Structure to design on (307 residues):
């Protein structure tokens, strides 16, 4: 029987692990299908306080893990496929093995939705990104392309105009999901060019290990051409990793956990941390802060229960 099981090993999960381990609760962290979370697929992180020269994303998250292990946190590879939160102790099926816990911290994150091209996948962190706030800075005076037609795509494109020489927004239709105000702002921006009814068929250049261009195809005319770009930002939404909790935890229509204040969910003893509940900020530092909150609430809960 565990005191605390933490699902997810990104900034939120690792920070929750550091805090609960230091509270002597011997947390068990189930790393999830993307160990290290979103940071593990970024390169340099320059906005995490305490690193004036920046820090490599995978290194930062690995150091958080080591810090948690140093205080006694246990890490186990795998994901929770099934969760029974109907009564305490909670039960989780992790790679076929059932584990029981008094409290649960859900820090499973939200995975960026990708186009799914092989070349795109190979160039993630090498010019392909899902986070303008994280990586925009690296594309000063460069040609940037953004994919998507929702508010995220508008917001990221507008943000990227601060850095890029030119920003091209590619959308697969000519109707946008984005709110009118965001769309109008994007359309009016002199550095921002819209390409509609178009998709990316290929990202170049995998052999060089960097983005040098894309192959664009117009879905109406069928015509395709190559365009040189230095950075490609995919802003086609995120998918919160809440499948095992559907019907148990209160979720919003897109599957994000609905908070009951602080780090609390609708189930007593189950806490949320990070992007699985946060569709707004999604930063390493905010996820870490949320992990701290969840840990402190779990600790208080266990103390109250006499453990
Ligand atoms: P979204 O509204 O679901 O939009 C996703 C966009 O990506 C859609 O335009 C969609 O095209 C496109 N897309 C999806 N899969 C694609 C694929 N495989 N290839 C090419 N294009 C693809 O997602 P979001 O923009 O991340 O926004 C999510 C929510 O957060 C929304 O409610 C949004 O209003 C909110 N948000 C608000 C703000 C703000 O107010 N400042 C900022 C960001 C997000 P189709 O339209 O053709 O389906």
């Amino acid at each position: 029987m565990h005191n605390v099981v933490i699902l997810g090993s990104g900034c939120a999960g690792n920070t929750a692990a550091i805090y609960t381990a230091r509270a002597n609760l011997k947390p068990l962290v189930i790393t999830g299908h993307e160990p290290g979370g979103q940071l593990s697929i970024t390169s340099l992180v320059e906005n995490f306080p305490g690193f004036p020269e920046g820090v490599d994303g995978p290194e930062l998250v690995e150091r958080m893990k080591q810090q948690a292990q140093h205080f006694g946190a246990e890490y186990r590879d795998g994901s929770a496929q099934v969760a029974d939160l109907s009564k305490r102790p909670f039960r989780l099926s992790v790679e076929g093995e059932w584990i029981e816990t008094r409290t649960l911290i859900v820090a499973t994150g939200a995975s960026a939705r990708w186009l799914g091209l092989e070349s795109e996948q190979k160039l993630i962190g090498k010019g392909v990104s899902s986070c303008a706030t994280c990586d925009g800075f690296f594309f000063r005076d460069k040609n940037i392309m953004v994919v998507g037609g929702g508010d995220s795509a508008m917001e990221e494109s507008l943000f990227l105009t601060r850095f890029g020489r030119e920003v091209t927004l590619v959308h697969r239709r000519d109707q946008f999901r984005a709110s009118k105000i965001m769309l109008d702002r994007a359309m009016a921006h002199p550095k921002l060019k819209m390409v509609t009814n178009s998709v990316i068929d290929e990202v170049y250049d995998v052999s060089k290990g960097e983005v040098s261009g894309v192959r664009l195809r117009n879905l109406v005319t069928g015509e395709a051409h190559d365009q040189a770009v230095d950075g490609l930002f995919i802003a086609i939404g995120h998918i919160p990793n809440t499948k095992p909790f559907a019907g148990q935890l209160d979720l919003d229509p897109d599957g994000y956990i609905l908070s009951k204040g602080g780090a609390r969910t609708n189930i007593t003893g189950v806490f949320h941390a990070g992007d699985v509940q946060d569709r707004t900020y999604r930063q390493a530092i905010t996820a870490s802060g949320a992990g701290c909150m969840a840990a402190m609430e779990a600790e208080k809960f266990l103390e109250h229960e006499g453990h």
Notes: The pocket of NAP is lined by residues 113, 115, 147-153, 155, 172-173, 177, 236-237, 279 (CB under 6 Å). The radius of gyration is 21 Å. Residues 114-234 form a domain with the FAD/NAD(P)-binding domain fold (CATH 3.50.50.60). The chain has seven helices and 19 strands.
